[in-house]
Specification:
Layout: E1 2-6, E2 9-12, E3 28-31, H1 33-50, E4 63-67, H2 72-84, E5 92-94, E6 105-108, H3 112-122, E7 129-131, E8 148-150, H4 155-168, E9 173-179, H5 182-197, E10 201-208, H6 214-226, E11 231-235, H7 238-251, E12 257-260, H8 268-273, E13 283-286, H9 295-300, H10 311-321, H11 357-377, H12 392-401, E14 403-405, E15 411-413, E16 423-431, E17 437-446, E18 455-457, E19 484-488, E20 497-501, E21 506-507, E22 517-518, E23 523-525, E24 532-534, E25 536-538, H13 545-570, H14 575-579, H15 582-598, H16 608-642, H17 655-679, E26 683-687, E27 694-700, H18 704-727, H19 737-761, H20 765-796, H21 803-807
Parallel strand pairs: 1-4, 1-6, 6-7, 7-8, 9-10, 9-11, 11-12, 12-13, 25-27
Antiparallel strand pairs: 2-3, 4-5, 13-16, 14-15, 16-17, 17-18, 19-20, 21-22, 23-24, 26-27
Helix pairs in contact: 1-11, 2-3, 4-5, 11-12, 13-15, 13-20, 15-16, 15-20, 16-17, 16-18, 17-18, 18-19, 19-20
Length: about 800
C-alpha cells in the first residue's frame, strides 16, 4: 500500500477559533487541478506496475490519497493517518487490497514547507517520503529528515544556477521576490550568498505569500515601482506567482525582466493568467522536458474517478465540466446538469494542460523507485516471496541504493542526501502571434560539471521584456572603462560605485578594475591611462640646441687657445713672450685646451667610461691649469723679490722648481681622482625622481666626498692663486701680469662659487649644462684675462714689445 499526499485545493476558508470547543476541520477552497494531475500520474504508475510481469509479479500495489489543501497542519494530520492506518473521512481512496494495511511509502507533498513538517513526523518511523516538487535545500539534511527523498533536484543547485544565469547576462543590480515559506526563504538565501560571490547586488529582497493582506502586497508593488533595477528574480511557488501577477496587472508593471525558478517558469497556467504580458521575455530554470508514453491518455481518462464514492469527486467533476449534479434555486439558468458521463474531449483548462509533464514524470519515477525496492526485498524473479516481513526502514534503505532506468531511458538513483542529479533547461518565454506563450529551451545547466562549464547557452535567439531582442541592462553603475578604477559609493552596495581616473604613472587595462597598477619605473601611463608607454630618456645631446651651442663654445675656445698658442709660438723670441715665462705659458695654453675639450665629455648619453672620464679629466686639467697660473704668480712675486739688494730668492724658484711645483700640485689631484675611482667611481644612472614622465640619464657621483674633494682642491688652489696675485697687483712693473691673473682668478672664483647653488638646483640635463658652462666660463676667463692683452700688444702694438718697454718703470696704477 502506497500513500499519496497532494493539495487538491490550494487554500482554505479563514476561521476564528474561540478555544471554547474543538476546532472544526478546515474547509478547503480553490480547487487545484494540479493536485489531481499529480494523483493521476501516481495512479498511472501504479496501474502500469500492476500490469507488468517483470516487476513485482503477483504483487499488486494499492494506494491511499489525501488532500492537504496546502495546509501544513492538515499535512501532518494525514501523514499520521497514513502511518497509523487511521482512516479519515477526507481521503480519496481506492484500495484493491482486501485488508487495511499500513503504507510502506508516501508520495508527496508538492511544496517544501509541508514536506518538512511531514518528514519530521514520519522520520522516526522511517517511512519513505518521496516528493516530486519540494526543492528546498534544507530537506537534504538527513539528520533532521532521515526518510525524505525526492525526484527533483535540490534548490542548493537551482539557486546557484540562477545566480550564474544572472551573472551570464551581466545583471549585477537586481531585485528579488520570494515566497514567504521554507522553499522561498531558503532558496533566496542560497541565491543571495552565491550572488555576492559573483559580484551581484540585490537592490531589494521582499517576501510574499498568497494570503498576505492587500497593504503588504501594495508595499511590494511600490518597492518595484521606485527601484532602479530592471531585473526581478522571483523565487515563488506557482500559486503565489499567480496571485502576484494578478495584482501587478492592475498597476501595469511591464518592462521588467523576470528570472524565475522551476516552480512557475514553465507553468502554462501562470502564462495563461498573464493577460497583461507582465512576464513576457521571462527566463529561468526548468526540469528537463520529459514524455511518458501512455500517461497523457491515462490522465485524460477521468471516468475511473467517477467510481470513487466521496464528496470530493462531485466538486472536481463540476469544476472540470462546468456543470452541477444538483440544481439549486440560486443557480443560473444556463448552468447545465452533470451526468457523470461527460467527455473530456474539447475541454481546455489546467487539467488538460500537460506542460508539467516533467513533474508528472517525477511522480512516476518515485512510484517506480518504491516498486524496484520492493522487487529487490521480495527477491522477485518469476514470483515474489510473499512471506517476507516488510519493514519501512528496510524499504527506505533499498530505495536509497536502487539504480534503474525507466522505459523512456531516464536513469533514476539518489545520492547520499536523497537527491537526484541536478540538470536544468533554461526556458525563455516567447510570445507567439496568437498570444500564447511558447516555452523555448535556450540553454542547459548541468551541476555535475566543473563550475566554468555548467552553463551552456544554445545558439538561439532570445526574447526579452517588451519583446526586445536586446539584452536588458540592469546595473547600479555603468562599467568603468580601462584607464579608471572603481570607488565605492559611501553607504551603498559594492555594485554602486564611481569611476575614478587613474593617477599619473598608473594604468588599468580592463573594465571594472578595482585598482590601478603602477607602471614600471621606466614606463609612464599614456593619456587614456589604459597602458604604459616607455618614458623618454633625457640627456644633454649634441643634436639639441643647448648641446650644440655648448659644443660650439667648447670648440671655439679650443681653436681660440690654439690660435693664441700659434701666436706665442710665432713670437716666442719677442720680449713679451720671454718675459712671461714662455714654458709655463705654453703649458697653461695646453691645459686650457684640455679644459675646453673636457667639457665635450659631459655631452651625449652617459656611459660607464664617460662618467669616470668627465669628472676626473675635468679635475686634473683644471688643477694643471691653476697650477700653471699659480706658478706664474709665484714667479712674478719672486722676480720682484729678486730685484731687492742681497736677495737670492730666484735660485729657489727657478725653472726646475716651477716644473716640480706644477707636477706636485697636479699629482695631488691625480691621487684624489684615483682614490675616488677605486673606492666609489661615478657611474651612469637613470633618474626617475626628477621628472615623472621622463628618465634623466645622468652620471651618479658614486662618492660625493670624492667629487667635493676634487672641487675643493681646485677651489683651494684658485683661492691661493687669487691671494698671491692680489698681493702682486701693485708691483712696480710696466707690464705687471699679476693684475691679469687677479682678474682671471676673480672670474674663476666667481663662476665656481655661483656654480654650486646653480648645480644643486638645476633639474636633469640642465645641471650638466651648468657644469659645462662653469668650465667654459672659467676657461675663457683665464684665456682672455691672461693671454689676450699679450696678443693685443704682439699683433697691434709691436712698438711696446721691446725689452726697454718691458724694463721701464712707470707709476703704479690702482687696481
Amino acid at each position: 500500500m502506497l500513500g499519496g499526499i497532494f493539495s487538491f485545493h490550494s487554500s482554505w476558508k479563514d476561521r476564528k477559533d474561540t478555544y471554547m470547543h474543538k476546532p472544526q476541520p478546515l474547509q478547503c477552497t480553490s480547487l487545484n487541478f494540479r493536485g489531481f494531475q499529480f494523483a493521476q500520474a501516481m495512479l498511472f504508475a501504479i496501474e502500469e506496475i500492476n500490469n507488468k510481469t517483470d516487476l513485482l509479479p503477483g504483487i499488486s500495489l494499492g494506494y491511499k490519497l489525501y488532500d492537504t489543501c496546502g495546509s501544513i497542519a492538515r499535512g501532518v494530520r494525514v501523514a499520521l493517518a497514513l502511518a497509523n492506518d487511521n482512516e479519515d473521512e477526507s481521503s480519496l481512496s481506492e484500495a484493491p487490497c482486501t485488508r487495511p494495511a499500513q503504507v510502506l511509502a508516501i508520495m508527496g507533498e508538492t511544496s517544501s514547507s509541508p514536506c518538512m513538517a511531514i518528514a519530521t513526523v514520519i522520520g522516526p518511523f522511517h517511512i519513505p517520503l518521496i516528493s516530486h516538487f519540494a526543492t528546498c535545500a534544507c530537506l537534504s539534511n538527513k539528520v533532521k529528515y532521515p526518510s525524505f527523498l525526492r525526484t527533483i533536484p535540490s534548490d542548493y543547485y537551482q539557486s546557484r544556477a540562477l545566480a550564474q544565469l544572472v551573472k551570464h547576462f551581466g545583471w549585477t543590480w537586481v531585485g528579488a521576490i520570494r515566497t514567504n515559506d521554507d522553499y522561498g526563504n531558503n532558496g533566496m538565501a542560497t541565491f543571495t550568498e552565491t550572488a555576492q560571490h559573483l559580484g551581484i547586488c540585490l537592490e531589494y529582497s521582499v517576501s510574499f505569500f498568497r494570503t498576505d493582506p492587500p497593504d503588504k502586497i501594495q508595499k511590494i508593488i511600490n518597492i518595484i515601482k521606485t527601484s532602479t533595477s530592471k531585473v526581478i528574480v522571483a523565487f515563488l511557488s506557482h500559486m503565489d506567482m499567480d496571485v502576484l501577477i494578478h495584482k501587478l496587472s492592475y498597476h501595469n508593471l511591464t518592462g521588467y525582466q523576470w528570472v524565475g525558478s522551476e516552480s512557475w517558469i514553465f507553468d502554462s497556467q501562470t502564462a495563461a493568467m498573464d493577460r497583461h504580458h507582465i512576464l513576457d521575455g521571462a527566463i529561468g530554470l526548468s526540469i528537463p522536458k520529459a514524455q511518458v508514453s501512455g500517461m497523457r491518455e491515462f490522465m485524460a481518462d477521468v471516468k475511473p474517478l467517477n467510481t470513487s464514492n466521496n464528496q470530493m469527486f462531485e466538486e472536481f467533476w463540476e469544476t472540470l465540466f462546468s456543470c452541477k449534479f444538483k440544481q439549486t434555486k440560486s443557480a443560473t439558468g444556463n448552468q447545465r446538469k452533470c451526468t457523470g458521463d461527460e467527455d473530456l474531449t474539447g475541454v481546455h483548462n489546467s487539467f488538460t494542460d500537460m506542460s508539467l509533464m516533467p513533474i508528472f514524470n517525477n511522480v512516476y519515477k518515485g512510484v517506480y523507485a518504491v516498486a524496484h525496492a520492493l522487487h529487490n526485498i521480495l527477491g522477485c524473479n518469476k514470483t515474489c516471496h510473499t512471506n517476507v516481513q516488510l519493514d519501512p526502514f528496510m524499504i527506505l534503505q533499498h530505495i536509497k541504493r536502487i539504480r534503474f532506468k525507466t522505459k523512456e531511458g531516464d536513469e533514476v538513483y539518489f545520492n547520499e542526501n536523497g537527491d537526484p542529479v541536478a540538470k536544468y533547461e533554461i526556458i525563455n518565454w516567447q510570445p507567439t502571434e496568437n498570444g500564447i506563450v511558447d516555452f523555448v529551451t535556450v540553454g542547459l545547466h548541468d551541476s555535475s560539471l566543473p563550475a566554468d562549464k555548467q552553463l551552456n547557452m544554445l545558439n538561439k535567439s532570445l526574447i526579452w521584456a517588451k519583446n526586445s531582442h536586446q539584452v536588458p541592462l540592469s546595473v547600479c553603475s555603468e562599467m568603468c572603462p580601462p584607464g579608471t578604477r572603481k570607488v565605492l559609493q559611501k553607504g551603498k552596495p559594492v555594485c554602486c560605485y564611481d569611476c575614478l581616473r587613474c593617477a599619473e604613472g598608473e594604468f588599468s587595462n580592463s573594465t571594472d578594475s578595482i585598482t590601478c597598477v603602477r607602471c614600471h619605473p621606466e614606463y609612464w601611463s599614456n593619456e587614456r591611462r589604459d597602458a604604459c608607454v616607455k618614458k623618454d630618456a633625457e640627456f644633454l645631446s649634441y643634436e639639441e640646441i643647448m648641446g650644440a651651442l655648448l659644443t660650439a663654445a667648447s670648440l671655439f675656445g679650443t681653436f681660440m687657445t690654439a690660435a693664441v698658442a700659434f701666436i706665442f709660438f710665432t713670437y716666442r723670441k719677442t720680449p713679451i713672450v720671454r718675459a712671461n715665462n714662455s714654458e709655463l705659458s705654453f703649458l697653461l695654453l695646453f691645459s686650457l685646451t684640455l679644459c675646453f675639450l673636457c667639457s665635450l665629455t659631459f655631452i651625449g648619453q652617459p656611459s660607464e667610461w664617460s662618467c669616470m672620464l668627465r669628472h676626473t679629466a675635468f679635475g686634473i686639467t683644471f688643477v694643471l691649469c691653476i697650477s700653471c697660473v699659480l706658478g706664474k704668480t709665484i714667479v712674478v712675486l719672486m722676480a720682484f723679490r729678486a730685484t731687492l739688494p742681497g736677495s737670492n730668492v730666484m735660485k729657489w724658484f727657478g725653472p726646475t722648481q716651477q716644473r716640480l711645483s706644477v707636477l706636485a700640485f697636479t699629482l695631488i689631484q691625480v691621487v684624489i681622482c684615483i682614490l675616488w675611482l677605486a673606492i666609489s667611481p661615478p657611474f651612469p644612472f637613470k633618474n626617475f625622481k626628477e621628472f615623472k614622465d621622463k628618465i634623466i640619464l645622468e652620471c651618479a657621483l658614486g662618492s660625493a666626498v670624492g667629487f667635493w674633494a676634487v672641487l675643493g682642491y681646485i677651489g683651494l688652489l684658485a683661492m691661493l692663486c687669487f691671494i698671491l696675485a692680489f698681493l702682486a697687483r701693485k708691483l712696480p712693473d710696466n707690464f705687471n701680469e699679476a693684475k691679469f691673473i687677479t682678474f682671471s682668478m676673480l672670474i674663476f672664483c666667481a663662476v665656481w662659487i655661483t656654480f654650486i647653488p646653480a648645480y644643486v638646483s638645476s633639474p636633469g640635463k640642465f645641471s650638466v649644462a651648468v657644469e659645462i658652462f662653469a668650465i667654459l666660463a672659467s676657461s675663457f676667463g683665464l684665456l682672455i684675462c691672461i693671454f689676450i692683452p699679450k696678443c693685443y700688444i704682439i699683433l697691434l702694438k709691436p712698438e711696446k714689445n721691446t725689452k726697454k718697454n718691458m724694463m721701464g718703470k712707470g707709476a703704479p696704477k690702482a687696481l
